[in-house]
Amino acid sequence: MNLTEEQKLAAENNNLTSLISASAGSGKTYTIAARVGYLIEEQGLSPEEIMAITFSRKAARELQSRVNEGVSAGTFHSIILKRCQELELEINVLDDEESDSLYDEVAKMLGIFLNGKWLKHSRNHYRKQVKSFREGKMDSPTPFVELYLSRLAISGSEDYDGILVRGISMALSGRFSNYRHVLVDESQDCEELQFEFVKALGIPTTYVGDESQCIYEFRGAKPQLLKATTDNCFILSQTFRCPSHVVNIANRLPLETKMSTSKTDGQIMRSGKLEEVLPAILEARDPEDIAILCRYGKQVEKYSQALYDMGLQVAELQRPPRGPIWSMLKYLQCPSSETCRKGVSDKWGSISHDFKPILWASSSAPTSSVHALTANYMRRFGNNPSVGDIMNSVQVPHHLLNEHKYFMQEHYDCLL
Fold first, then answer.
1. Phi, then psi, of 52 in degrees rounded to 5
2. pLDDT at residue number 174
3. CA–CA separation, 294 vs 314, rounded Å?
4. What CA–CA distance (Å, rounded) separates 411 from 416?
């Protein structure tokens, strides 16, 4: 691999625990891939002995495409859930909506949630109580925490933090003993339980992150814990993404890692008028060099239509569709959820009767962490059934295909 001097030092260090402090656009994923290659080729680890933890499923897929396929790349939750499946431990995972529904149910039982309103504090207040207890910051559980955790245990379910707690327990009991090195990407956004999971693994660790780039403190991230992990820090300061005028502005901020660049200046155009923006686009050498930022969705539609009319290709970044198919698959995953049942009733009123029985029939099958319908697809087509496979076997209406394909890829790719 053609590494810069900074990347080479970071990728080929021999410390048991190290931190790669990577500025934005500094080739972080490229360096992680090089680090994995070094561990395999120079330190004699097999790919199956390396765990690479990322912060999103998209990042995990990108990293997996760059490293040996034997490396376990995934989010904290997907790696723990995959090991649970390998050990045949059945878990029903609650998403945020289902977890909210359980919080409301517990509050009703305690008489602090009536007529759709919290009488004292808020759901977020009690969520913080549960998190504090799990992080060992409370000597004993409050009545709410005790009842919430007992309801999870009775139903055989886990919320997202509960998966981490289970993972820590599994790591301490040697259930991840086949791994000899772990890499943690975006580690500045890790929560305390995620740091505890990595520590519980008890193996050499490469953290990759930059405290200045933390964006999830409002959700419990603890970037200050990153500094305490190791004194062996390697800095990637050269950015390949940002031109000099952006770097100069960024370096005025109190960044942990100051940036440098050799990129020439680009152009920033501030305008809300379509007639001013379009001529600049036509003058550009390559439309792929242009990004248009809008404040709201209707502006995106307006610009997209104008560009299409000019014969230009447009790559819109849109929110994933979550309509009838999504709501049905979520219901089949957790039929006891009040939120999921409401989603089905709200979104299935306009679907043709010819298609309803196909999905309703599968709801009579035994449900588990992976519902019967999805399991059937997996047996036939593997983790990523093609659009043609779905159309030929289940006859999903064409206008719902994108929604269904997104659910299959994003929601279950990490679980199977």
1. -120, 115
2. 95
3. 14
4. 10
